[in-house]
Design goal:
By secondary structure, the chain is of the alpha/beta class. Helix content is 47%, strand content 15%. Strands 3-2-1-4-5-6-7 form a 7-stranded parallel beta sheet, with helices on both faces.
Length: 250
């Protein structure tokens, strides 16, 4: 029960790593508000997990949506203890194939969204002198990949946002840290695989990037997020943790 009594927001919590995080947080005693564009999926998960979970529809790109989520959280609770910025979208295109609208959508969802959630929720944490922000970046934010210009730029930016905010907030009692998942078996990864001409070959290629010889599981990333959300990580500030089966150790 490492999160007993903690009040947590998980963006993009309806599926994949976000869903696994919501499940783990509830197991550890937390109350969770899921903020997700997919309200049906978020509400289905909330109904399954019970009264500890609330679902709110949110487009992380929209400032008014983020403000509405912050208000909903503060109406339910008097404070937020943990913010997990997990919502994100993928794009597999070269820099010159990427349209302006696609670039804006990826950057706004994967980078502007976390910043907006921090803007409207972190000041309350600072005022109380405690809180934890966990940003979910990616292996793509640490190393270069082909056809990943927009996605990698956003995720790399999220790593730097984590470090900059961590330095700004270091004296405040609010921790800001980041996890960088490798190749994880999630609906997002499945959507990427489905865009490839040979899906079986693409899946084999993905497994080959992982020195451990298999894809990661969303629950494994959720465990890393739990570490940063809990008091087990009180000395971590601006930490960037690779959860990638050894990829960045090569």
């Amino acid at each position: 029960m490492r999160l007993e009594g903690k009040r947590c927001i998980v963006t993009g919590g309806a599926s994949g790593i976000g869903e696994a995080t919501v499940r783990r947080f509830v197991q550890e005693g937390a109350e969770v508000l899921i903020a997700d564009l997919d309200l049906t999926g978020a509400q289905t998960l909330a109904d399954e997990l019970g009264s500890a979970v609330t679902a709110v529809q949110c487009d992380a790109r929209r400032e008014d949506d983020v403000q509405r989520v912050a208000s909903a959280a503060l109406e339910r609770w008097d404070a937020v203890d943990v913010l997990v910025n997990n919502a994100g979208i993928e794009l597999s295109k070269t820099y010159d194939e990427t349209t302006v609208d696609e670039w804006s959508s990826v950057i706004d969802t994967n980078l502007r969204g976390p910043w907006l959630f921090c803007k409207y929720l972190v000041p309350g944490m600072v005022e109380r002198g405690s809180g934890s922000v966990v940003n979910v970046s990616s292996l793509n934010g640490l190393v270069g990949f082909p056809r990943s210009t927009a996605y990698g730029s956003a995720k790399g930016g999220l790593v730097v946002l984590t470090r900059d905010m961590a330095i700004e907030l270091a004296p405040s009692g609010v921790r800001v840290n980041c996890v960088c998942p490798g190749v994880i078996a999630t609906p997002m990864m499945e959507r990427w695989t489905n865009t490839m001409p040979d899906q079986a070959e693409a899946q084999e290629m993905l497994r080959g990037t992982m020195p451990i010889g298999r894809l990661g599981k969303a629950s494994e990333v959720a465990s890393a997020i739990l570490f940063f959300a809990s008091d087990d990580s009180t000395l971590c500030q601006g930490s960037v943790l690779s959860v990638d089966g050894g990829f960045t150790a090569q």
